[in-house]
Records
---
Amino acid sequence: DTGVSQDPRHKITKRGQNVTFRCDPISEHNRLYWYRQTLGQGPEFLTYFQNEAQLEKSRLLSNRFSAERPKGSFSTLEIQRTEQGDSAMYLCASSYAPGGNEQFFGPGTRLTVL
Amino acid sequence: AQSVTQLDSQVPVFEEAPVELRCNYSSSVSVYLFWYVQYPNQGLQLLLKYLSGSTLVKGINGFEAEFNKSQTSFHLRKPSVHISDTAEYFCAVFRSNDYKLSFGAGTTVTVRA
């Protein structure tokens, strides 16, 4: 399977703990995006990378959130000191630029903060 | 400000009946338009996209959509739905001066026998 993969698929954690999610994009894609989706809503943009450079961050991305893409391939999203409001589905997507307007999505990581 | 509006949050429909899901957007620049489908506990799957050219776009699973620039709309249609079309559908806009997708809040389609 050469699609976008995410790990883990589900994560349950206690408030105050740190969590880290991983995304592996489609191999030739140079852009990688993170979105957050809460119940009953559409995905909301968090941040994106072109190769290893993080080019844009949403105001939704508080200072407890950090994302990296160290070698321009896989990416990690870390949430420190989780809060109940962080409970959501975290979606990763990738695309190829220039010219690639279609974003391919992974299956998502569902985070539940107790 | 909401820039992508899906006008119906829930659409119940009988099997083999037609369905239309409405999407309006606002933008001061040119746009690319997408419809995605999401099945429970899964990621998003692209149904169809409008980049340029013909305003009537055909996608997978018998879906089609029409881009109307004057109405700033991109409504999704299927002439005859199946039980397996039960899912959530998202309209999304990619602005030519931006890098990210902006999504609507979604429309839940429930197909009943």
---
Amino acid sequence: GAGVSQTPSNKVTEKGKYVELRCDPISGHTALYWYRQSLGQGPEFLIYFQGTGAADDSGLPNDRFFAVRPEGSVSTLKIQRTERGDSAVYLCASSPLAGSLEQYFGPGTRLTVT
Amino acid sequence: KQEVTQIPAALSVPEGENLVLNCSFTDSAIYNLQWFRQDPGKGLTSLLLIQSSQREQTSGRLNASLDKSSGRSTLYIAASQPGDSATYLCAVISNSGYALNFGKGTSLLVTP
């Protein structure tokens, strides 16, 4: 079946602009996660959804970052007033809520802030 | 806070060698541990998942072991091939949450 998809694959934006990154999880997966990966580093957790609600947003770096999942499926990560330090690959993953909790990742969105 | 460390950071081996990648974590109260592969510019592909009650998992030429009490896992790759060249990431889910905590990865190069 279809895996996790993310759009766009690449996004270049100017400092100060607003961006939205989209994630389509695997159908039926209740849990959805956003991670951020900087060059040479492992992914770092940003936010986790159970259904429509953010169950844990402790990884969001500041209030410029916000994410929604209004219908419990597609999620959008929103970044306001982008800064050059926001440049990274943003990864989305989904998993079932029971059992092994194995997470399946999308291809990521590479964000470049100029 | 859970800290995950991977050693070595980089590894280069000739084709055909067996090799071991190491992962350690500071908090042994984990739910599961996953090994991932990441090719340059790509997302993560799950290789093996070991639940906390298990000691190892195998898939083809890959074998992952887990020693929860000592906070260690190893990924064994048998008869390495150039196509195995990639970055290998280890990650754990702690009992206290659902998020994966990742190491920085081991960059593997298998030369023909």
